[in-house]
Amino acid sequence: MVLLPPLPADRWDDKVDAALKGLMPRDMRNPERAGVAMATLVNHPELTKAFLGFSVHLLFRSTLPPRLRELAILRTAHLHECEYEREHHKVIATAETDLTADEISAALDGKSDDPFESTLLEAVDELHESSRISERTWTALSARLDTKQLMDLIFTVGGYSLMAMAYNTFGIEFEDER
Length: 178
Hints:
Layout: H1 14-20, H2 36-41, H3 45-61, H4 66-79, H5 83-96, H6 101-108, H7 115-130, H8 135-142, H9 147-170
Helix pairs in contact: 1-3, 3-9, 4-5, 4-7, 4-9, 7-8
């Protein structure tokens, strides 16, 4: 059920354009091309602008290797039962990393054949369940991730958890369902 629909075209103004300016080219900053999620978020342009700056870091500037970032996002989306986020990141993971369909499916279930990636997925589960990573998991992750990468992992899980909560509550639909 859609609780918050995309912003109607007649309400797209300079504030909405400014909120999207750093994220997308001008020809996409409109209700027809922005996509359902963005068109919904711009119901609150100031919040959207602030949050998108953070989101851009998570997706494009994170120190986490893309493969690990996508594993964390996929597991987070699955734990929050956020179909929109999960399906979009399956596409991103396939296009931008070497993750296979089987690895993506396993990650959604919190599994990996790689011991380090299993530990990373455990960290996502721990954050979801108790809002913290255990000392044992932190120590294991620290063997391969530096301080910035560990911080980016926590903020990635938190940021995508927040997005999942918003998308699930607002009732974000896939573009082809509109």
